[in-house]
Amino acid sequence: MSGGPGRELSTATDRVLTTFFKDVLDKILKASRLHPVRQEVQEGEAMIQEACVAIEDIEERERRAREVKYSRRNRIRYIDRLLNELEMLNLAERTEVPERLGIELDRLMAESTVVELVQQPRPDSVTDAMDVLYEIQDSLMLNEADDE
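Now predict its structure.
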């Protein structure tokens, strides 16, 4: 051996150190490559969260719109039943509105958005009550057409 016994030890130590530093540098390089990937994942997760919130908002708006729509339809259906009862009374040649129907008519008039109806007293005759119900029903149908 040309360099003597100390030279062999030095060469062995250099190889170990070279391997050690190479491993450390490889780990650092991998970590620096993973940092942008982690950042992209975090940005992707943030985008997903934003999308989820937007979807929930849209679903909530649609749910409220459905509730309004079905509430209006149910009210129109209820008015149809009252009109049917009044029509039966009219066919039976009854002229006075029964108290039960009068109370329901008062409630519908108070809830109505038609200003003229809110300000007028309850109609006494069956035909006048039917006219009021038709006006309320028409206002509900017009609002429904505007919403769609």
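The mean pLDDT is 79.
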